[in-house]
Write a structure and sequence with these properties.
heterodimer; A: 204 residues; mainly alpha; 72% helix; B: 331 residues; Hypothetical Protein Tm841, Chain: A,domain 3; 2 domains; six-stranded mixed sheet
Chain lengths: 204, 331
Amino acid sequence: MDAMETVTAAINKNRDFLTELDRSIGDADHGINMARGFNAVMEKLESSPPDSLQQGLKSVAMTLISTVGGASGPLYGTAFLRCSKIAQDKSTVDSELASLMLNEAVNGIKSLGKASAGDKTMVDALEPAAKAFDASYKSGCGLLSCLQSSCKAAREGVEYTKTIAAKKGRASYLGDRSIGHQDPGATSSAIILEAITEYCKKTG
Amino acid sequence: MKKIINNPADVVTEMLDGMVAAYPQYLRRLSGTNVLVRANAPQPKVALVGGGGSGHEPAHGGFVGKGMLDAAAAGAVFTSPTPDQIFSAIKAVDGGKGVLLVVKNYTGDVLNFDMAAEMAEAEGIKVMKVVVNDDVAVENSTWTSGRRGIAGTLFVHKIAGAKAQAGGTLDEVKAVAEKTIANVRSMGMSISPCTVPESGKPSFELAENEMEIGIGIHGEPGIRRETIKTADEIVDQLLCKILCDNPLKSGDEAAVLVNGLGATPLMELFIANRRISEVLAAKGIRVVKTVAGNFMTSLEMGGFSISVLKLDAELKELLSAPAETPAFVQL
């Protein structure tokens, strides 16, 4: 759960950047909403420390759902809720569990948001990230190395969102005017993955 | 940014308290939430729950009262309320006859209201949902999120609210809400942006001679940018798109909403309405009800939207039924 501290710090650091991205093609609040949500997560984890990985992830999910708002709240909340279900009674995350979690998170986001790759959403960062993670895992890489490949794929996904028009979410109302701008949701997804990776690197 | 506020993080909660202080005869706030409910909720009738992001005042709390909404959940500025808030609203106003959720078509709003509906159903409350998508500026397609819900939502609140007040069943109230949605079309434009308090920056920049056509209600850019025209030309352009999408014939009856986005003087709304009434009269369309004012705003955005609702006998009767709310009173 210490990883959430790194994630929250990264979200806070990028609050204005994410909001600025959203200002171009949305309603200028993504960074504000994400920062409010993750700061609430930190408060929640500090005030009632979870006694298991599963409970901690569930607590993260429920706090995001009840504080972020917009589409991002339910979507990120669902992602963490799926991770919580996958965690079962495990106490640490190894490569195998991380792969299951990442894939389940992507499935949860896709089914709730009814989005597919190419719609200019967080799926465009997370789906390639999950695939890259699995490819590294199958080739025998360790957790950190798998995470690093997934971050690279997520960033490529973010770059890809610049080239396409949005089909889902509020940017879809702009049609082709959304081309040229990177998707704020894909960007925050990449930032979260990078923060988790940074935490993993720090702690070994 | 220049605004009459205290702390940018407190705008929603302070606004809600101020609204309740102004209209205690209609409203109360559910403690610990950002939900406004009718002062005398729950009532022994089908309840209507609306809501959405803040920044659209008087929507949505301003439409809570007799003959319209039973509760409105307020999210952060331009951000859907969260499922727990909407769930609190549903629980507080359910009078045993079921609850209809009136949702505007935005990914976030739909997701959060759906989650709240699931929570309510798990507790045995009968919940149904309608999604308003009146904005003709946005082209619809199976591959996108579809059209947005904007000011035409006011008619849905009014008509479905009247049906519920008259003792309609949940199915009947939902049916009349859907009929209203099927017959209302809207389109908006903007001449100046708005600033979300916590962001502190204007939502977009427009040159002195520019306007955005096809604007939503969240400060987002419209479908295109053009050189500004006269009021009559702008009205013709918006009405043309609205009437192309929902053709009204000579002899049809309609209701019109000329909705200010926050910073447009009523003078300009009436100037626009003069042209609207001319164009509709020339087509032989009889306007039986016109509403002009600031109902579904986008903070201090300059601009307006036009909504045209095609009426039949049932919609006309429900539209003319009494309503007593902070922002819409009809005796």
